[in-house]
Specification:
alpha/beta; Rossmann fold; seven-stranded parallel sheet; 8 helices; globular
Length: 253
Amino acid sequence: MSKEKIALVTGGSRGLGEDMAINLAKKGLNVLLTYHSNKDEADKTVNEVEKIGQKAYALQLDVADNQSFDAFADKVKKVIDSHFGASKIDFLINNAGIGINAPISETTEEQFDALVNIHFKGAFFLTQKMLPILTDGGGIVNVSSGLARFSFPGYSVYGSMKAAIEALTRYQAKELGVRQIRSNVVAPGAVETDFGGGTNKNDEAKRAAISNFTALGRVGIPSDIGGVVAFLCTDDAKWINAQRIEVSGGMMV
């Protein structure tokens, strides 16, 4: 019997990350997930994965604090040894993030730095710290956004950081190819979660507008996204590399 593979999902306690964890489990992967502050939500996701029959574990991580990544890497090594009986992870999914909506004229340096630290610097250096623990032949999935392709007022910094992540993904694919590590981007469109204040879920005018310029005529739901991420962590996707897959129902086409 082949070794069960392990995926590390940042921000895996709720929303899109939770659905990613569940879909990874359905594909037969064990899941190590991180949460920022809500341990109860993380434990619920762990329980959902275990109900499917896979192993799971949750670790606290603030992806904005790159000074904590060395200690986090040490924790990961200990957990995958004690809980999963492994020495390395097979996939890294950089999913954790926040949303800040502010026009360029009003964006503060604090807001700018928060988005840079979480969405770009954090993902860059967390991946760097995970590389010694990431198995050869494994993979990286970075989570971007449709906002890196199309533009809506108020998301200049967020969209720019996601565009940076997409460029970084191609560099990761190029540099890590010698280790047979693939790196791809999944770019969700508008999804009804609590992200960015939950307006995609609660603002009916916004939901109607999104539906109108989405080819499939509705707002996305978390279960639209997780299966695509899980697919990229299977052998079925072994020849997909350095690609951007937008999962938006056809927004702004």
